[in-house]
Amino acid sequence: MHIAIVDSSRVVLKLIAGLLEPRGHVVELFTDSSEALDYLSRQPSVRALITSLEVRPIGGLELCWGSRLIGDANRPLSIIVMSSTRCTHTLAEALDSGADDFIEKPPSAEELHARLRAAERLTTMQAALIRLAETDPLTGLMNRRAFMSRAHEAVAHAGTSGNLSAVLLDIDHFKRINDAHGHDIGDEVIKAVATLISGKGIAGRLGGEEYALLLPERDLDKAMMVAERLRRRALGLRIPAEKGPVKLSCSFGVSTWRDGDTVDGLLKRADVALYEAKATGRDRVVASGMEQPLSKAS
């Protein structure tokens, strides 16, 4: 487990590290609580924070609260508070501030390892719940909620780096596939298209047969090339079915980042382009603002 430990005493830090590192834990030590909080925000692999209440410049209770806000956003984190005095009021304050557990300082090896085993069980369960909350169960892609969260992060980054493009895609005549072959085959078609876009960027299933793909560091021309390659690959898909292999095609709408843009604006322009692709014959890629599609139906 990756663990951050915060205490004003380097002796205490070395003592705890000496108990944990031989067990294979990755340990980061801090005497400065502000530095520790910054490290937590930048290192999502940290699964446990062990901190004293008597730390500076951020107090122990404030550190618990700030760490809990980081942990609750989208990652599992267990917070264990150390104190040399087992005061009921102090314990209550720590738990109310976001701590999960409490341990005496300095901790014994047996108790420390037991607390960390409990923390590992807790964070493993949290990670599983996060995956369930963020994952589309049919395709394994991000669901709409998770995709929109990642989209806001990508747009915030694009505000400083410049390039970001969005691709919305939709399976053509999907209802016909369901009607002709049944919903089981329809599900296989949905999964096949999801596999097609998985790993190509920030990919999500928005619902039904519609997907979204964000392409950081890609301008409009490069995004159009990605979408065109996906269009051609979709044409080559063959889904086994009782009546024979099912063929399909997809339509694509593409937009790119503008200075001062928003997630809604970026995706709305891609959605308008997707609508144009569907209205002008399907099986094509259309860029926002273009009157003619990039590729004609095959």
> Which geometry do the CA atoms define?
elongated
CATH architecture assignment of the largest domain: 2-Layer Sandwich
Helicity level: 40-55%
- Superfamily (CATH H level) name of the largest domain: Reverse transcriptase/Diguanylate cyclase domain
Distance between the termini: 53 Å
- Average of pLDDT: 91
Rg, nearest Å: 25 Å
How many helix segments? 10
Assembly status: single chain
Biggest sheet strand order reads 2-1-3-4-5
Strand content: 15-25%
Structural class: alpha/beta
Tell me the total number of β-strands: 10
**What is the highest CATH level, the class of the largest domain?**
Alpha Beta
CATH topology-level fold name of the largest domain: Alpha-Beta Plaits
Overall tally of structural domains:
2
Q: Detail the poorly predicted runs.
A: 290-298
Order of helices and strands: EHEHEHEHEHHEHHEEHEHE
Largest sheet: 5 strands, parallel
Describe this structure in words.
The structure is a single chain. The protein is an alpha/beta fold and 298 residues long. It folds into two domains: 2-134, 3-Layer(aba) Sandwich (Rossmann fold), CATH 3.40.50; 144-287, 2-Layer Sandwich (Alpha-Beta Plaits). The chain is 49% helix and 19% strand. The chain is built from ten helices and ten strands. The chain has helices at 10-20, 33-42, 60-74, 88-96, 109-134, 144-161, 174-181, 183-197, 220-235, 263-279; strands at 2-6, 26-30, 46-52, 78-83, 101-104, 164-171, 202-207, 210-216, 250-256, 285-287. The longest helix is centred in the middle third of the chain and has 26 residues, at 109-134. The relative contact order is 0.09.
